[in-house]
Amino acid sequence: MRWKKRYTHLIAVTILALLISMLALHWLKPKLFIAAAAIVLLSILSSWFSQQLGGPLIRLAEGVLALGIRVILALFYLFILMPWSVVYRLGQAARDRLNKKQHSHYVQRRHQYQAADFKRSS
Amino acid sequence: MNILGISAYNHDAAAALVQEGQVIAAAQEERFKREKGYAGFPSRAARFCLDYAGLKTSDLDAIVFYDKPGRRLDRLVKTHLGTAPSGFWRFVGSAPGWLGERAGFRLRLRNQLFALDRGGLPKPINLLFAEHHLSHAASAFYPSPFEESAILTMDGAGEWPSVSLCRAQGESMEVLSEQHYPNSAGLFYSAFSRFLGFDINGGEYKLMALSAYGNENSTVYKKFREQISNSIIHVQDDGSFALQLEFFNRIHDPMLFSDDRWEQLFTLKRRRPEEPLLRRHANLALAVQRVLEGIVLRSARHLKKLSSSRNLCFSGGVALNSMVNGRLEREGIFDRVWIPPAPGDSGGAIGAALAAYHLHFGRPRVLPPPGEHRPGSCLGPEYTAEDIRRLSTSHGAVFEELSTAEIIERSAEALSHGKILAWFHGRLEFGPRALGNRNILADPRDPNVQRKINLKVKFRESFRPLSPLIGEEDAEALFGNGETSPYMSFSRKLRERYRRPLPWNYATLTIKEKLHTRRSDFPAITLVDMSARVQTVNPLGSPRLYSLLQAFREKSGCPLLASTSFNIRSKPLVNTPEEAFQTFMNSELDVLVMENFYFEKSRQPEWELTPLYNL
């Protein structure tokens, strides 16, 4: 378990170092390269250092991901689910008008269970 | 052939192992986790089942999940479609969770199953999925004594169905009709349970018990019943029904109902959990109970017509309502009614495994020969004398180790002297009820015993009923019904000759006054409506408990014992000797009998009370 954590922290730190290296390339600043290399080297040598740097990085990434997912879901809800909901409810209302005359809310199924019924999860 | 059934990720997670068509082990995860109604994955219960049979997951022919997660997801999405935009915040908040759960469901389930073998290498697992209501139906029919039967299942909701009408013959099973969510009798009852201040998935028992305190002749009751029938639910002649959805919050679980509308409709404030219970609450509970009974009875009549069967198996969460079951039995729609010991979601683990055995693998069903007694509900772990000895030594407890005959004699003696006794024996029960292996027992003639057990032993509401344990041969004489009821499924009326005359104004008394009125020769087990949730004891099925009943009868002349489950409020039934001893020492129990070990409270050393949440 500890090894798994250390491994995760090292990956996070390496990604950070890669980002710094890309900036170094963009701005042509060799000092940034040295800083990125130093971060990776220190992280390999010291688990404390990798934890101090990697831990917050992971939490930040998780936060950004959670926020991103919620933003995507909110957009999905507003622009896809709501219009779909209008169509769905219009269809349902029409069905309900037809069903009002029915004297039963049971749905007839008449299905004999077979081996194949167990294969799928949906 | 070995099949593991799993019920998980909803409530009452459980695992069950079926070997050659027989359920040999089953347990609920809550009993290990000590968290009532635990809703995660039942890893410890599954581990117990495998260990009990000496198996690894690689020895299993199939693992069967008790519902179809893909169809559940479909229901969730369509529910949002039907309610948008009111579910916006809930969707954004909870969708990442359920999308992740359902999308990666197979992977997650597989990972948890592999973890059972403590990190063993992944091997292909034959993972199967049974429909939720098929799991309920199978859990009732396959262990039943019937060659053919009609099957009624009714609960909150499965994937889409909330009610299923089925028919079964031999090993084959056919679903005839279904009623779909959001029209659900379980949700209807749970919503009222919450409105009256009780929990969902647990508080429904309290609503049922409270309903007995209502007055069927009162105008308040009649008004409530009319309001429910006119505004909340429309029930058809065939038992199908439509909930009036403007009164329900389908998205805003766990509230279930629309607060303001209900308060306006019933001119009654929603009751908070610790607020006092009033007559109006009891009358509303009675109205709800009667509507539910109406739904079940009409559905049963309709199913009788469809199936032409003389037998009925009844399962799903609604089948935990012993008052409904009692009505179903008394109405005589079917000649025989069978209800399994765990008709709720935990029993789905057994049903899924049995359904796969008979319907997927096509193995024949073999009915037990008449008179043969199978383990019934006692399918969980058991503990040795060495375990109990070790526990006693570690706590410095004072005990006596006796022979079986002596322990029965001493226990009966203690009971006849008015002691409250905790009884711990054999394998732990599967299902919500203690059925003779983890019980609290007392003399039912003592008028104070119900209050004492409720308030000082179990720390729960004083109106909660105790149940009678009675030998099969005596059931007819006391309750006018000789049919066996080994799983405490049916509520039956006490015969007139054991009832006491009631005060002329009994119907108008408050809940507390009714509770304190002596209604019968057995006040501890008689509900205010003269009914009791009977458990019949068979000398072959439960020889030890039967001997205790006989010994008590010899000493006291009383053929009954008052019984309730061995636990305290909001905690699951005790599982281990340690939990039994802790509960014994932290409550006002007088005697603890664990197998052949006899513990008396008065002889125990000083004990520092443990906070109850640790039990």
Distance between the amino and carboxyl termini of chain B = 38 Å
What portion of the residues of chain B fall into strands of 2 or more residues? 15-25%
* Radius of gyration of chain A, whole Å: 28 Å
| Overall pLDDT of chain B | 90
Radius of gyration of chain B: 24 Å
| Uncertain residue ranges of chain A | none
Topology order of chain A in helix (H) and strand (E) letters: HHHE
Question: What is the helix tally of chain A?
Answer: 3
Question: What does this 3D model show about the protein?
Answer:
The complex is a heterodimer of chains A (122) and B (615). Helix content of chain A is 78%, strand content 5%. Chain A contains 3 helices and 1 strand, in the order αααβ. The relative contact order of chain A is 0.08. Chain B has 615 residues and is of the alpha/beta class. In chain B, strand 13 (311-315), helix 12 and strand 14 form a beta-alpha-beta unit. Chains A and B meet through helix 3 and strand 1 of A and helix 3, helix 4, strand 8 and helix 13 of B. Strand 1 of chain A pairs antiparallel with strand 8 of chain B.
Q: Outline of this structure?
A:
The complex is a heterodimer of chains A (122) and B (615). Chain A has helices spanning 2-27, 30-45, 47-99; one strand at residues 107-112. With 122 residues, chain A is mainly alpha-helical.
